[in-house]
Every structure is written in structure tokens, then in C-alpha cells.
Amino acid sequence: MNRDSKKSIRPIIEGINAISNKSIEERFQNETLRPIIKLQHELLVSYFKNYLISKKFKFQGVSNLKKLELISTVFKKDNAFKSELKGIVIGHFTTQEFTLYCNTKSDFNKRILTIIQQRITSIIDVF
Q1: For site-directed labelling of 80, which of 29, 46, 112, 116 has its Cα 20 to 30 A away?
Q2: Could you give the CA distance from residue 33 to residue 111 in angstroms, rounded to a whole number?
Q3: Which residues contact 93 (CB under 8 A, 6 or more apart)?
Q4: Whole-structure pTM over 0.70, yes or no?
């Protein structure tokens, strides 16, 4: 798949590029990470649901506060889970985007995981 076709399947997020004097990291987050994560939303949610099942976590009948605590704990402590989530996103980078990602990998990894965690917690009632 070439660079243009990878970018062409990404959703457009209205209003996200309103500020023109952003840092490279913020621009990459808004122009690359957020559209890819939005594109992969259903897969990421399904992956998290499967993770809960595989770890035998019961979300039925649990308060939203306990759900939020569990989600936070998973995103802090389960490195294998976090690596797989990052892989789902990184696999949609173009070669040029991957090169930029490699220059500031630690920062971008934090941004990827924060955005995914926010998406999952925003639909907590689904679990």
C-alpha cells in the first residue's frame, strides 16, 4: 500500500488543525495519530474487550469508578497490552511518518496510549 492510499482511508477530523503554529509533535498527533486511532476505533475497542475476557476481568455490575480504575491500571502496568495497541497504530504509518515517529518515540508512544485510553474511557458504558 503506498503512502497516498494509507492517508486516503483516514477520517478527517474537523477543527483539529485550527491552530497553525503548533509544534511538530502536536501536528503529528493531530494529523497522523488521531485520524489513525479514529480509523481503528472499533478494532481498539474490540481488542480491549477481548483483553478483559482473556484476563477474566468482570465488568458486569461493576461501578464506573471501578471500571475507570481498572482501565487506568491496565494502561499503566501491562506492557504487552500497550505494545500491541501501539502496533495497531504504528502499522498504519507511512514510511515518512514512521521516520518522524522514531525521532521522538517516547513522546509519541505516550500520546498514542493517552488518546486510546481516553477513547476507551469515553465509552465505558459499552463494557
Answers
A1: 29
A2: 8
A3: 6, 32, 36, 101
A4: yes
